[in-house]
Structure formats: structure tokens, C-alpha cells
Task: inverse folding
């Protein structure tokens, strides 16, 4: 297991992050995401930590607080030293019926962090993330509230999830002007079947040293191969009832077919090849995996050992390439004029 810096900080996180979205009482999305209770959660977290994972991600929205409660209790049940776990959670989603029970306002952030700390049974959150982009609340208000939480010691680092590049750049510009805490990580969807992140967000993250935390590396399980041609047509999983995130399935099927060959050559699985591809990207700091069963978790954890060759990566890059869009094609054309002369 490798450990990477979280943005520009001195904090190191494992290249695999254990995601707890499957911890649920079975009512969230009708149980389509998962229904792991305390006993199952304890076993999955224990297995992850034994493999070298030190990073756990949850959110207040996951099963309306159930996931945070189970995660906090698991840390206690397993007797883990708090300093041995990098604990991340999120705020933004609707947590009540009131007009102010959602968003990235100062009020909702302050209410949310207090409740998350209580559910997690801890006095601090290592990485506190805004779970969505709020079209109403000014960025200045959100960043001031987050900086206050850092100064008060309730939060150590701040991040965002599912934000556009311009909003992150604006937020960190504001933080820089005021000497305040900046956004150190972006949690975003990225998979071999969905590489849109590379258009605007990857250049921003590389330029500003922002950590990339990947959610959905298997595209909701589709890139494990069990739903595609050649897979188990009767396979159960979240895409049977919760077909998300969106993807071009014919293109994904072609990718899975190519990955089956590679998986066989490496004595691995299609899921491991898909995860290995994402892990190979230099801008990826950590890949979040969730699991319904110990067998799924074992399979995913083995992905860190599967190393794709340069030819294999090039083939997968070609098969999964993004269509060229403006201004990309113009930047490429004009950028060639500014390349240094060859000696």
C-alpha cells in the first residue's frame, strides 16, 4: 500500500480509501446501495486496515447519518487509536425538512459539523468536505465557515466534492487573499468509462497541488464486468435498481472486453484492472472503494498489486479517450506555437 500527500499538506493517506456508503439500515435508496450493519461494518473496516488502508470516507447524507454512526462505533469497537485513522466526512445534502437543512451556508455547515462529530464519536474530523456545489451560498461565506472550523480545531483540513474547476479556483483565491485554510482535496467521479475529469479539473489539481480523491472508480460496478457482455447477466448489484453514474454502455462494454484479456494475463479480475488503471494516473491521490461483502473488498484491495504495462495502459487510454471539445482542440493547435525549439 502506497501513501500519498493530501494536497499541499503534510498528511499522508493510503492510495486506497475505504468508503462507507454501503453502511445502511436498508432504507436509503431502498437498500440498493447496501445494507451493512455494525457487525459487517466492523469486519470490513478491520480487513481494510489490515491491508494498510488508513483512510476512511463517509458523509452525513449516507443513510441519513447511519453510516457516520456505524463508522464511529466501528473505530471504537476495534479499539483503534484515533491518530491511526484519517477520517473524512461531508456536509451539504438535505438532512431535514427545514429551509436551512441543506447547502453550504454557514448555518448548515455549523449545524452539520456538530452532528457529525457526535455521530462519529470524535472531537475532530481530519478532512471535512462540502458534498456539492451550492448555487445560492456565496463561496466567501462557505470558506469563512470552514476556516473557522479549522481554527477551532474541529476540522483539520477542508475539501470539496463534485465542484467545477472555476469554483475551486475562486475559493482558493479567496482563501489565499485572507491567509485562510484552502481546499486541499477534490472528491470526484473518475473511471476508465468516465474520464471527463481530465478536461478542466485535472489541470487545476495539478497546477494548484490539490489532491484527487476518486469516487466511483468502477462506475457503479459496471466496470467490474458483471453487467456487460460476457458478464453474469443475472448479477445482483446497485446498477440493477440504481443505474448510476451515467455512462456510454456500448463503449464501456468494449473496454470491459479488452480488460478481460488483460485480467487473464495478470491472473486478476476485470475490477482489479479497472482500479489499477485509475491508480496509475499520477494526479490520483486515493481511490475510494466500497464493498458489500468481504470477497468484494478482498478483490478490490488486490488491485494495488496489479501493475499494467505501458502498452496495456496506452491501449486502454486509446479505447477510453475523450472526444475532443472546444477549447481543447484550439488550445492544442495554438499551444504548438509555444513549444520550445528542438535542439
Result:
Amino acid at each position: 500500500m502506497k501513501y500519498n500527500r493530501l494536497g499541499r499538506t503534510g498528511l499522508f493517506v493510503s492510495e486506497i480509501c475505504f468508503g462507507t456508503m454501503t453502511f445502511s439500515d436498508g432504507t436509503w435508496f431502498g437498500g440498493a446501495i447496501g445494507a451493512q450493519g455494525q457487525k459487517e461494518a466492523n469486519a470490513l473496516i478491520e480487513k481494510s486496515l489490515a491491508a494498510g488502508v488508513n483512510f476512511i470516507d463517509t458523509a452525513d447524507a449516507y443513510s441519513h447519518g447511519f453510516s457516520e454512526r456505524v463508522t464511529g462505533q466501528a473505530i471504537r469497537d476495534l479499539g483503534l487509536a484515533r491518530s491511526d485513522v484519517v477520517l473524512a466526512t461531508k456536509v451539504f445534502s438535505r438532512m431535514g425538512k427545514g429551509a436551512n437543512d441543506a447547502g453550504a451556508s454557514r448555518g448548515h455547515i455549523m449545524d452539520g459539523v456538530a452532528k457529525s462529530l457526535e455521530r462519529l464519536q470524535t472531537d475532530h474530523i481530519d478532512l471535512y468536505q462540502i458534498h456539492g456545489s451550492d448555487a445560492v451560498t456565496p463561496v466567501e461565506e462557505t470558506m469563512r465557515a470552514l476556516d473557522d472550523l479549522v481554527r477551532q480545531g474541529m476540522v483539520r483540513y477542508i475539501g470539496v466534492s463534485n465542484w467545477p474547476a472555476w469554483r475551486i479556483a475562486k475559493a482558493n483565491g479567496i482563501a489565499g487573499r485572507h491567509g485562510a485554510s484552502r481546499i486541499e482535496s477534490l472528491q470526484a467521479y473518475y473511471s476508465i468509462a468516465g474520464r471527463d475529469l481530465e478536461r478542466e479539473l485535472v489541470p487545476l489539481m495539478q497546477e494548484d497541488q490539490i489532491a484527487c480523491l476518486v469516487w466511483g472508480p468502477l462506475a457503479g460496478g459496471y466496470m467490474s464486468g458483471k453487467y456487460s457482455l460476457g458478464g453474469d447477466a443475472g448479477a445482483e448489484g446497485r446498477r440493477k435498481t440504481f443505474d448510476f453514474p451515467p455512462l456510454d454502455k456500448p463503449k464501456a462494454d468494449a473496454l470491459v472486453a479488452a480488460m478481460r484479456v488483460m485480467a487473464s494475463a495478470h491472473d486478476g479480475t476485470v475490477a482489479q484492472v479497472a482500479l489499477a488503471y485509475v491508480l496509475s494516473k499520477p494526479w490520483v491521490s486515493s481511490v475510494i472503494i466500497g464493498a458489500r461483502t468481504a470477497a468484494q473488498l478482498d478483490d478490490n484491495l488486490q488491485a494495488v498489486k496489479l501493475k499494467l504495462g505501458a502498452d496495456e495502459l496506452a491501449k486502454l487510454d486509446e479505447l477510453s479517450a475523450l472526444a475532443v471539445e472546444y477549447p481543447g482542440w484550439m488550445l492544442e493547435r495554438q499551444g504548438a506555437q509555444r513549444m520550445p525549439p528542438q535542439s
Observations:
- The radius of gyration is 20 Å.
